[in-house]
Specification:
six-stranded antiparallel sheet; Dna Ligase, domain 1; 2 helices; globular
């Protein structure tokens, strides 16, 4: 199966009362359908996000799920960073490491850049490439 045959990549965020309980996804599709992409990311967010403990039954009261379907990434220079809107995500790539800040995660582009450095696990100022992340967001 070629990349053209794959569905769009997704991220699934699980939260309760504004607190994130898990978020996982990929920038490249790995499954044969969008449904499988969402299921795979949701399972990973619920049980395998290394930043959070696996969900328990009591976490499923009053929880919300956001699915972000990645449409595209476009190169972004540091000089263009102030033009990043809250509706757009940010991808930082430094070597083989990535820091991904999804749309609506914060408003200030500089703060979001700091989060991307941290998520990538590299020192701020290290050599990197930036991308504007365009995604459709579905909340429920």
């Amino acid at each position: 199966m070629s990349d053209r045959d794959l569905p769009l990549p997704v991220f699934v965020t699980i939260e309760r009362r504004g607190k994130i309980l898990g978020c996982r996804g990929t920038l490249r599709s790995t499954q044969s359908s969008l449904e499988r992409e969402v299921v795979n990311a949701a399972r990973s967010a619920a049980a395998f996000d290394p930043r959070y403990r696996p969900l328990r039954p009591d976490d499923l009261k009053d929880f919300a799920v956001t699915v972000s379907v990645v449409e595209r990434q476009t190169p972004l220079s540091m000089g263009e960073l102030p033009t990043l809107s809250p509706e757009e995500g940010l991808v930082l790539q430094s070597g083989e490491r990535f820091g991904i800040v999804l749309p609506f995660e914060g408003r200030d582009p500089q703060t979001r850049l700091g989060w991307a450095w941290k998520k990538a696990g590299v020192s701020p100022g290290s050599s990197c490439r930036l991308f504007r992340l365009i995604a459709q967001r579905f909340r429920g």
